[in-house]
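Ligand-bound model needed. adenosine-5'-triphosphate.
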Amino acid sequence: MSLADGPDDVVTARAPAKVNVHLAVGPLRSDGFHELQTVFLAVSLFDTVTARPGDGLSLTLAGEGAGGEVPVDRGNLVWRAAELLAEHAGVRPDAALAVEKSIPAAAGLAGGSADAAAALLALDALWGTRAGREDLTALAARLGSDVPFSLHGGVALGTGRGEMLSPVLARRPWHWVLGVAAEGLSTPSVYAELDRQRAAAPDQGIALGVPDAVVAALQGGPASALAAALRNDLQAAALSLRPALRRALRAASDAGAQAALVSGSGPTVAALASDGDHAIRLAATLAGAGVFRTVRVAHGPVPGARLVA
Ligand code: ATP
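Prediction:
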């Protein structure tokens, strides 16, 4: 192999976690998904996927979720991303994949989606398939509702089941403390609990609404305006399945967060800070509160999946 071919022998891509600053859950659709109106914000917690030439597919995993929680076979979204891209491009799915996870698994931070997005980019480069942004986005949507956003990054309004994206402007970085619980929550179980709660209270309408307040706050409001506009319709269901989360949310408010909410399907608690220094102080207080397994500081928006030089 010539020197010019060298860089494609090892390709690394990284992709960010997300928090949903607005997550309105509409009715259950006939395809089993819920209609959503969500505003995703990509935050500075990244997983990386490295792809090397291989004979067939192989996968190793290090970091968060390694050693059991996250599968290293076809159950892993990275594996499925590889098969899907290979099928789309008409190439053999040959690659040795290594995933390094900093994003906690089953935490409501879209870690699996980030890995799938990074894998699509890395393999597109390794195999020279040149799928193009539009094709990659279509493949991403087949892998999962959050995967297109993991490719896109930044801030975006997600409709449909969250896979149809339009960009949202954010004029400044937002600073967060992410409190990660010891045990993950499965996304389908949280939606099932929401359906159960709604069936038990059929008089309460399901209003999707338009996230005007959160979009306006992202475009230039003070942190207090974003704090007042945060919404997560899955929060009550996550709290019902994991009552200890109430204490975690209270700990974040008591520690001085502008606001705290469950991230996506949880159980991560996302606490909004006033600025970067406040986030560090807030994280130190929350780390000492004894309610989280890990406490991380993150800011966003950050770009979506990218190749790493
Ligand atoms: P979301 O916010 O998109 O609902 P999540 O952050 O709650 O997702 P993930 O970390 O994406 O959850 O993973 C949920 C489950 O998906 C895991 O428990 C695991 O069984 C499976 N999974 C498959 N591939 C991966 C991966 N690469 N990383 C993490 N989990 C994966």
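Confidence is low (pLDDT under 50) at residues 1-7.
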